[in-house]
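Hi there,

I know you've been waiting on this one. I reran it after we fixed the sequence typo, so this is the corrected version. Both the input and the resulting structure follow.
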Amino acid sequence: MKSIVNWKLFRLLLVAGMFGFIAVLPYTLTIQEETLKELPISLPLALLLSFIQTSILLSVVIFIGLYLRKRVGFELPILSDWIAVRPVKERLKPLVIHSIKFGVLAGTLILVFDYVFTFLINPLESFENIPWQAFLASFYGGIVEEILTRLFLVTLIVWVAEKIVKSKTEKSKTINIWIGIIGAAIIFGLGHLPATALITTITPSLVARAIVLNGIGGIIFGWLYWKKGLFSAMVAHFTTDITILILFPFLISLFS
């Protein structure tokens, strides 16, 4: 009897996702140090509860993503081949290089547009990144956020769109995929606003900034997910975070 999802792939993504969650903790504990002091429960208990909550959330979204992906035509070539012990070496290097290039592109565009927004809004409070913490935090973006946003959200939106639009033409399928990519990027951007609201008042310009900056990455990563698979989107997202959190500050320090 054929399984409803590939459970080996499910376990791989869940373990990777929980690694991403643990990896981001030093960065999170540093930038939210003052907020964490006001917790009504002890920090270890809060971390334990957060770990449990994240594991449940990831389990659900990974299951749904894997269940729906084949129904909308999304493949996971590298990851599927890894768990099936099929050779990936020849394809891996060019794919990683390709993904890194798009990750640097996304990071550069985000930095440029973020600078443009400084003419429209007051600069948001910034935190000095500790390089090793920023490096580890990049695994969260590359793994966890790609599971949530691409594997789950893009796939779900495309599946819903195909249920609404009954046309099976190649054009309608492409439109549905772009609806999923753009829709997920917008939702992901808006999802950053509650955290922004903790440090400043939300304005239309801030909403636009959140959508544009996250939309740049979301569209590029979504396109890679569609064309190259989830692993490619993960590598690109990781590279983007490295570009923004580590490479750019390092370059600025050289000229300051």
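Quick highlight: DSSP finds ten helices and no strands in the chain.

Best,
R. S.
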